[in-house]
Amino acid sequence: MDSRELEKLVEGISRIVDWYSSSNDKDGELLVSAKQKLLGYSFRFSVLVGEALDVFNSKYAERKSTTAQRIIKYINEGDKQFQASMKAEIDCVNIRLEEGRYEALYRRLKGQQESINNTIASIMQDIKRLETEYKQTGN
Question: What pTM was computed for the model?
Answer without folding.
Answer: 0.73
